[in-house]
Design brief:
The structure is a homodimer. Helix content of chain A is 43%, strand content 19%. Chain A is α+β, with helices and mostly antiparallel strands. Chain A has a three-stranded mixed β-sheet with strand order 4-3-5. In chain A, strands 1-2 form a two-stranded antiparallel ribbon. In chain A, helix 1 (2-17) packs across helix 2, helix 2 crosses helix 4 (58-70) and helix 3 crosses helix 4. Strand 5 of chain A pairs antiparallel with strand 5 (125-138) of chain B. Bound molecules: manganese (II) ion (2 copies) and zinc ion (ZN) (2 copies). The site of one manganese (II) ion has 6 residues of chain B, from loops. Chain B binds a DNA duplex through residues 19-26, 41-43, 55-60, 62-63, 81-84.
Chain lengths: 155, 155
DNA sequence: AGTCTTGTTGAGAATTATTCTTAAGAAGTA
DNA sequence: TACTTCTTAAGAATAATTCTCAACAAGACT
């Protein structure tokens, strides 16, 4: 369990640095997102955490996720409205968003990583980071009923 | 009002092609988003439309926006969960998302436009389109209280 | 180990966002 | 004008998220 220990250490340090307490709830929530490998929504995190901490409330999961996000340990993933999802993979990477089921898949790309933020952007504000977002139909959805038909592709 | 007429023509043709009716509601909703120049959320569109069509219901705005999105006349903008926003600017462009107020700003970039979708991505599904998404603090938010402090920048 | 202080949590109410149901209303057609 | 069918308005119903507040428990200090 190397990753788990790393995550715990990172959590501990960050909480201490910010004068926050290391609670069971924060531990479980963070580990759940970190171990998930995907981009779970709040209720999915709630489910996962309940396996180890059966009485945790949904509200605590919300509060904790937003707190972890303030601390930079997780980041909210932009989805198409319905619900927030969180990502614990904080290194630079990119996203493929399925327009049908809403799932978000990570992918790495050396070529995309080299892209520099264009000057045009800095006139809008202070840029923290960037990533490429692809939209389309994921393999799962492709199989259960066409995915190539429409698409309104642009460039 | 060249743009307005263009938009109306596009709407008319698309609706006809798809056997849908050209109603006052659809006209006003589409023109509102197209003229806004920004990425309004549903209730903002509702407000705008009500100025010309005082009795339009919120539900109709929802229905119409999703229908226009099916038709490829507008597109839902991925935000951080809270609410859907729509974009009528369908040419290739990129987004700057303010992490504080949630506003989404467009920007064009010839250099970013040249980026090709990497092969890695096609193993995840059928890609329709792509855009670069920057996160940070917009000028407005920068002014009313620091925006440079934190940031959790990655690459 | 026991006590205190104060940040955290759980429960449930309260909000907000979005969708559903259904009967009345308006486009396009004959 | 009358008819058919697609659309809409209203309000109820869901789903998502936040708020309130008393009980709880981490960490600090005996
Ligand atoms: Mn990710
Ligand atoms: Mn845009
Ligand atoms: Zn999918
Ligand atoms: Zn802002």
């Amino acid at each position: 369990m190397k990753n788990r220990d790393k995550a715990l250490a990172r959590l501990k340090e960050t909480l201490e640095t910010n004068g926050l307490r290391m609670t069971q709830q924060r531990i479980e929530v963070y580990l759940a997102v970190a171990a998930s490998g995907c981009h779970p929504c709040v209720s999915e995190v709630h489910e996962m955490v309940r396996e180890n901490l059966p009485t945790v409330s949904l509200d605590t999961v919300y509060r904790t996720l937003w707190k972890l996000s303030e601390l930079g340990l997780v980041a909210p993933v932009s989805s198409s409205g319905d619900r927030v999802r969180f990502d614990a993979y904080m290194r630079r990477h990119h996203h493929f968003v399925c327009a049908r089921c809403g799932a978000v898949y990570d992918f790495d790309s050396p070529s995309l990583d080299e892209i520099r933020i264009p000057e045009e952007a800095w006139s809008l504000g202070c840029v923290w980071n960037s990533h490429m977002e692809l939209r389309g139909i994921c393999l799962g959805c492709c199989n259960e009923g066409g995915g190539t038909e429409e698409g309104h592709a642009e460039g």
